[in-house]
Amino acid sequence: MNKKLNTISLSGLMIGPILGSGIVLLPPIAIHMLGDNAIIAWIITMVMGAIFAYIFTKMSILTSSNEGVNLIVGEKLGHNFSELSSNYLTAAVCFGPVAVLYTASGFVCDIIPGANNYKIFVVFVLLLLNVFILMMGITAMGKVTLILSSLTGFILIISSIFNILDQSSITFPNALPQVTTLGSTLLLLFWAIIGWEVIGNYVEDVINPEKTLMRAMKISLFAVISIYMLTTFALQNSMNGQVITKETDINVSLILVPLFGEGSYIIMGIIAAGLCFATLIMILGAVTRQMAARAEKGALPAFLRKNEGERSPKRALILLTTFHCLLIFLIYNDFITVEWTVQIANTFFICNSLLGLVASLKCVNSILLKLLVTLLILVLIVLLAFSPFVGWLLLILVTIMSIGKNLGHIINRFQREK
């Protein structure tokens, strides 16, 4: 295979999607909950993010297939858990991208006057554009996400620094926040570190994976931490010490005002839509590659395999896109809601991450790392407890189907040996 991703292009593929819409949504939420102490929650979150990134990158290096971390899960916990992890990720990506599409379309419609009347049309245009880029192959994906990530990072960092320098005085935390409020905030901010677990699904497309993955992770981690920390610090200082209530309007666009003036909201809308789009490219690209790799092994129907000469696994992409179109139709006709798709996707994403973290306990020797990974596992279990009833039903269904399929293989093999 002609590998196309080097350190820079892989970094671009990682930074934008990991920031995602979280860079727009999460800093205001943290400030609403903690005020000037929000930066403390972000420091803790970024420390956990660094551990999360390191663990999943190390596990990704151990595999040589686009099945990714799920292979290591199988090696450490057993084959059944590998299939279970793969199916959890696939199920999550059946639902999650639809919510991202609607989020991105919301930002686009806010920029274009009257576009909210045609939101469904914008959703489908974004979906088709995403499919087009994915079918162009890994090179196009890397270039698009690199451009989006670079522009976003540059604008947010420069705007944050300019905003901080523009303040008459800088406010720092003067006390520790209440433990209960800090805990609730950390549960929400945990979503800022999700995304590192799919890096391994690109390993076949990476030049010299052992070195490139770790280098790209370090660059991406530095960029993500810098952007989140500077953005949050600049935003909480933009409030000028005012008393913050639930009704207080806090928008990341505020940090762009000193530099871009009235155009700040338009620029922020473009940034947010671009980051959502980058997330779609990375997640769908990762899962379609995983599906094709599993089809090669016989774990999925053979028609999902990537044909020789194809730039990307087109059949897997078409299958997922068809399902996304069905969900969009159901949302448009009010049979389901966007929030419903988010809840279902989150349930499966959490379970997939849980299996990866449990397996990683057998991959690291450091007692400190084991303790920190255990802490992350506990946080995810708490998050999972908030999953909706329908999410639990689908989770149980996918689990039973995954285990049932593998049990069938075991029984057949036992009968043949007998």
From TrEMBL:
The keyword Nucleus does not apply. Keywords: Cell membrane, Membrane, Transmembrane, Transmembrane helix. Gene3D superfamilies: Amino acid/polyamine transporter I (1.20.1740.10). The chain crosses the membrane at residues 12-33, 39-57, 88-108, 120-138, 145-165, 185-204, 216-235, 265-287, 315-332, 344-361, 368-386, 392-411. Signal peptide: none annotated. It is found in: Cell membrane. Its main location: membrane. It is a multi-pass membrane protein. Pfam families: AA_permease_2. This is APC family permease. It comes from Clostridium cibarium.
